[in-house]
Amino acid sequence: MVKNALQAQLLKAGLVDSKKAKKLSKQAQHEQRTGQDHKAELMADLEKNKQSKQQKDIELNAEKQKKIEEKTLKANIQQMIQQHKIEKTEGDIAYQFVDDQKIKKIYINQQVYNALVAGSLVIAKTTPYALLAKALAERIDQKMQGFILWNKSEDNTLTTDENDPYAAYVIPDDLMW
Length: 177
Fold this sequence. Notes:
The chain is of the alpha+beta class. The chain is built from six helices and five strands, in the order αααββαββαβα.
């Protein structure tokens, strides 16, 4: 049981536990018997603990807020992808691309295939892969990386060796085997 009001307030505020309260009580009794007074030191120590706890709380709240904002941004991007994806792309042509170091395959029609090869469409990562216009994909990629899987314009940066005897014979990327 707490003997003085200060200890009761500290326990109620959660700044000390029952063991610490008992220790403070015994310390106070000892100080009364010996005539010493350490209240100023105790109050300074408690104030320092309170400030450090407040700082930790502020940091935790900022981290939680950042996670919430990131989750909201991901949800907004997923919604944009679902609203603006190109419909009716199913076809007989298999188009292969890389996702997480694995080759994935989607079946698309000839018109969509030509647009993917030309670079006007990109593949976005959703539960079923979605095809988006390049302008929208660039806006999404600016907001957050990781949603756009296949962008043909990034692959056109290949350079050829000057001494390559086969440099004149370019093999197209869209070659069907």
